[in-house]
Design goal:
Elements: H1 2-35, H2 38-48, H3 51-59, H4 62-69, H5 75-111, H6 122-132, H7 134-145, H8 149-173, H9 177-204, H10 211-229, H11 232-235, H12 237-243, H13 248-284, H14 288-320, H15 329-336, H16 338-354, H17 358-415
Helix pairs in contact: 1-8, 1-13, 2-9, 2-13, 3-5, 3-6, 3-10, 4-7, 4-10, 5-6, 5-7, 6-9, 7-8, 7-9, 8-9, 10-17, 12-17, 13-14, 13-15, 13-16, 14-15, 14-16, 15-17, 16-17
């Protein structure tokens, strides 16, 4: 009985930690809505669109490799594995952030020079926020893998509260609009980077970089990185295309709508991340019944949550936007539907990770991205922001179906 109580408490802390950023985002949104204009929301939304493209490129998803490989090592091997991931995130992400800064600047100068959304300083703040957060993300996985639920919770709580508080300060008191909202996460990432450098630096210095191990991680993650970057064509290119087809104010309304509707995706991701270690452990032990149980629990939770959100969406948006941006209700309702396909795709992805078939994710993303680009182009040209929201839902469904199909085909071929 004590064993199950301990397990429940641990899972509750993981789940609560995952909801902390979402809760702070919703709690602070009325203030942001009072002190930010549609233009500010458009700028934030536009640059957040590049996150799906550049986040995996800058951090290279080695935290995913660490999460999967952790259970296959003894204690010393686990420490050595963590040391290699830690040292990677000390330096490499900043090279990726520099390349990203140059690349997006050239794109905006050559192909989007007439845009009313400037590159400086927003682009630099966005990309280097990701680079400084590298140690934070690997520390999350370290704490979760070692079942340190309390440490995991307080790490996320500190990072989220600090980032949100700073953003509110710069927006409300500094009157800095979009820039103020984006600076908060940057400073929070820098603070955590310095803290984790001090906390783990001497411990990690005992281990030399194992280039063979690091190479294995990079090879494992390479298709995942490419596949994740292709997520841009399902949840990022919508805002890039909209910026060329609608006014800045309309882009701002869309940004508000997907940020609120996107709470369901954050909820979906939180649920998926909470159960991911259990699903991976179940597959490693070939306990497929246990894996299916966790998968069905996730899907059932999301169905209930999305239904409640759709019914109460208008009321919630009146509250969260201080009654300023109620016109974003339809976008929020539509985009919330993507969370259910998101949780299904997350489950399939974890199964693919466990079977070491990461190339399937890449194939799914390549084919799906081509389809999604066509879907977005058609729907945005015809229905503008509502079309983009519908495309958001359709593209997640496309990826989920393709992933399930490819995994099924691959497993059937192996049984022959």
């Amino acid at each position: 009985m004590f064993k199950y109580a301990k397990k429940f408490n641990m899972m509750s802390l993981y789940l609560l930690a995952s909801f902390v950023p979402m809760g702070l985002n919703l709690a602070s949104m009325p203030l942001f809505s009072l002190y930010m204009e549609k233009y500010d929301f458009a700028v934030v939304s536009y640059y957040s669109a590049f996150n799906s493209l550049l986040f995996p490129f800058i951090l290279f998803y080695l935290n995913q490799y660490y999460m999967r490989e952790f259970f296959y090592f003894d204690d010393d091997g686990k420490e050595k594995l963590y040391a290699n991931m830690y040292k990677f995130y000390l330096f490499i992400p900043f090279i990726g952030a520099t390349i990203s800064t140059i690349g997006i600047y050239l794109y905006m100068s050559l192909f989007n020079s007439d845009s009313s959304i400037p590159f400086f300083p927003y682009g630099i703040v966005t990309f280097f926020s990701i680079a400084f957060a590298g140690l934070y993300y690997i520390e999350q996985v370290e704490l979760k893998n070692r079942r340190n639920a309390k440490g995991f919770f307080f790490l996320i709580l500190f990072y989220s509260v600090l980032g949100t508080s700073l953003s509110l300060f710069f927006v409300v008191y500094g009157n800095m609009g979009a820039l103020g909202k984006m600076i908060g996460p940057l400073i929070s990432s820098i603070v955590l980077f310095i803290f984790l450098l001090i906390k783990n630096g001497s411990r990690m210095s005992e281990y030399k970089i194992d280039w063979k191990l690091l190479k294995q991680g990079l090879v494992f993650c390479f298709p995942l990185v490419l596949a994740a970057m292709l997520n841009f064509f399902s949840g990022g290119i919508d805002r890039i295309l909209l910026a060329k087809n609608v006014t800045v104010d309309e882009l701002g309304v869309y940004g508000i709508g997907i940020s609120i509707g996107g709470v369901m995706s954050v909820f979906s991701s939180s649920i998926g991340n909470t159960f991911a270690p259990d699903i991976l452990e179940s597959l490693a032990n070939k306990n497929f019944k246990r894996m299916m149980k966790y998968a069905l629990i996730q899907i059932a939770i999301m169905l209930v949550v999305i239904a409640v959100f759709i019914i109460s969406a208008k009321f919630l948006i009146v509250i969260f936007t201080a009654n300023r941006y109620v016109e974003s209700t339809m976008v929020a309702r539509i985009t919330s539907l993507s969370a259910i396909t998101g949780i299904i795709y997350s489950i399939v992805s974890n199964v693919i990770f466990a079977y070491k078939k990461t190339k399937l994710i890449l194939y799914t993303k390549i084919i799906g991205s081509i389809i999604c680009f066509g879907v977005y182009t058609f729907l945005i040209n015809r229905y503008q922001i509502e079309g983009a929201a519908i495309g958001y839902v359709c593209c997640n469904l496309i990826f989920a179906v393709l992933a399930l199909t490819m995994l099924t085909i691959s497993l059937k071929r192996e049984r022959k």
